[in-house]
Every structure is written in structure tokens, then in C-alpha cells.
Design a protein that fits this description.
Layout (H helix, E strand, L loop, with lengths): L4 E6 L8 H8 L5 E7 L5 H8 L3 E4 L1 H6 L14 H13 L4 E6 L4 E4 L19 H15 L3 E6 L10 H9 L9 E5 L12 H11 L4 E10 L11 H19 L4 E6 L5 E6 L1 H4 L15
Parallel strand pairs: 1-2, 1-4, 2-3, 6-8
Antiparallel strand pairs: 4-7, 5-8, 9-10
């Protein structure tokens, strides 16, 4: 793995259950891994016992001071503070490119084969050569001038080959303009996450409105447990707020292109909906430019 790259796992209260760490090793990743832990975490000693020099403890008060939580609850049980402080840590370590992950990913998968055919999550479709995958992702990040590149999520493929993400990739070869949960960044191009929850949606919508490019690569997939089943992390905040209040954070950030809607088939629930035709600038070909009048 290139020496200017590292993976950061943002974790809290899960010193004995950092699923992502084992998943990276099982996927053949040989690069640097750092666990980013805040100084308010009661399990710091256990993290240090388990992971030693791979643990980086940051000052949460400093991270809170530099972050707009978009509310006045005065509670700091959110990953958004670590997300923003991650850029400072990366630059201090001399890291140019980094992958920012949550701590609860049990596995990484291929979603399509070389013929663009959708594949299911069987053992043969696990990612085994993660170093090569991430090298290619960094090259794509640079060549595309994207602000961030991300893997797709398991939930993107509800419906399998008939899911919207799968059909867009198979029919058109399209990427998605969102990025969630697994952010690949250039440390010299920092972004600012906002909102105590829905921070990832807030980021790609707010930056997308300014013309910045976020890309989800459908062929690569992370698998996640249900957000409210694994103790620690942000589970308490999801249980406390529910998706209704959670969705409104994105409306606060981008009211012109985000609305409240329902999602699901048989068991529908409140969720945010990004209206993409209003979310991103439309770039016209130069042939449509009107001549300047002196």
C-alpha cells in the first residue's frame, strides 16, 4: 500500500468490537490503520490495550468548537466531531490520502463482476485485494477531481439487480453523486461536516450545491449491521431521535433541495429525500454561451 495513505476508523465505546479493523485485515489491507478515539471515551485504556500505537486520542472539546452541530441540544454524542478533526490528525501525521470509516463494518464486497453483472454476497465475491482496490480509488479521486469517493452500501442494493443503483451501473455505467460511510479524502482538500446527525448527507448535498463532486462506486460495497442494533458508537443518538428528526438536519442545511418523504415497500418510514435536479449545478456546453456585448 502506498506510504502516503492511511485508514482511520472513527470509534467510540467499542474497544472490544471494532468490526471494521478485522474486516480490513480479512480483505487483505496492509496499509496503516489508526483508531480515532475522543478523550471523553471511558474505554480509552481498553483501546490502548487492544491496539497500542494505532490508537490516536483527540481533544473532543476542540473538535466540538470547530463544528456546527445545527442544534442547541448541547450534547456531543455524535461522530461528526471526529469527522472534522480527522483532517487535522491526517495532516499532522503527514498523510496525503485517507479513508475514513465507521467502526461497525463486518465485511467488504464486490457488487458486480467484470461483465457488469450483479453478484450476490457469497464468499467468492469478498474483496481480498484491498490494497489494489484502494490504490485504484486514489487514482480515480485524483483523475476525477472529486472531493470524495465512497463504496456503495448494502442498502443501495435492496432489490438486487433491479435496485436503482444496480440498474444505473448496468445500463448506463453511472456512478451515484452521493457519498456515505466510507469517505476517501485528500487531506489537503478538507471539507466541513455539519449536523449532529445525517452529517454525511449534509456534506454531499451542501458541497454538491457548490459544484463539488462526490462519487459512490457501485461495484464496491460495504456491509453494515442495523444502526440501532450494535451498542456504542452513535446507537444512542439514533434511538433517541429517530429518522424523523434526523432527516430534518439535512433540510436545515439545504432546504431548497431536500424534503421529508417516506421510504420502504411494506414497512414505510419517514426519511429525507434529495431532489437532485435542484441539488447540483447544471453545466452547459460552451457552444450555448451567448456572445459578450462590448
Amino acid at each position: 500500500m502506498r506510504d502516503d495513505f492511511a485508514t482511520f476508523i472513527l470509534t467510540h465505546g467499542r474497544a472490544d468490537s471494532v468490526l471494521t479493523y478485522g474486516a480490513l485485515k480479512n480483505a487483505g489491507y496492509t496499509g496503516r490503520i489508526y483508531l480515532l478515539v475522543d478523550d471523553k471515551d471511558k474505554q480509552i485504556d481498553r483501546y490502548l490495550e487492544n491496539y497500542g500505537d494505532e490508537v490516536i486520542v483527540f481533544n473532543k472539546d476542540k473538535a466540538v468548537a470547530m463544528t456546527d452541530a445545527c442544534d442547541n441540544y448541547n450534547r456531543h454524542n455524535s461522530v461528526v466531531f471526529a469527522r472534522n478533526y480527522n483532517f487535522i490528525v491526517a495532516r499532522e501525521l503527514g498523510i496525503k490520502y485517507f479513508w475514513q470509516l465507521d467502526d461497525d463494518y463486518p465485511s467488504f464486497w464486490w457488487s458486480f463482476d467484470n461483465d457488469k453483472q450483479y453478484v450476490t454476497m457469497t464468499n467468492e465475491h469478498r474483496i481480498r485485494g484491498m490494497d489494489s482496490v484502494l490504490e485504484a480509488c486514489v487514482e480515480f479521486l485524483v483523475a476525477s477531481d472529486a472531493t470524495s469517493v465512497a463504496f456503495a452500501q448494502g442498502g443501495d442494493f435492496i432489490g438486487g439487480p433491479m435496485s436503482q443503483v444496480a440498474k444505473q451501473w448496468f445500463v448506463h455505467g453511472w456512478f451515484s453523486r452521493k457519498a456515505m460511510n466510507s469517505f476517501l479524502f485528500d487531506a489537503d482538500r478538507p471539507v466541513t461536516f455539519r449536523g449532529r446527525v445525517n452529517d454525511d448527507v449534509n456534506l454531499y448535498v451542501e458541497c454538491g450545491r457548490r459544484g463539488e463532486l462526490f462519487v459512490t462506486i457501485p461495484r464496491l460495497r460495504i456491509q453494515q449491521p442495523e444502526t440501532q442494533k450494535n451498542s456504542g458508537g452513535c446507537t444512542d443518538i439514533y434511538l433517541e431521535m429517530g429518522t424523523y428528526i434526523k432527516s430534518f438536519y439535512s433540510i436545515l442545511v439545504a432546504p431548497s433541495c431536500v424534503k421529508i418523504a417516506t421510504m420502504g415497500v411494506t414497512h414505510r418510514r419517514i426519511h429525507h429525500a434529495v431532489q437532485w435536479k435542484y441539488a447540483c449545478p447544471k453545466i452547459l456546453h460552451s457552444k450555448y454561451r451567448k456572445p459578450r456585448v462590448a
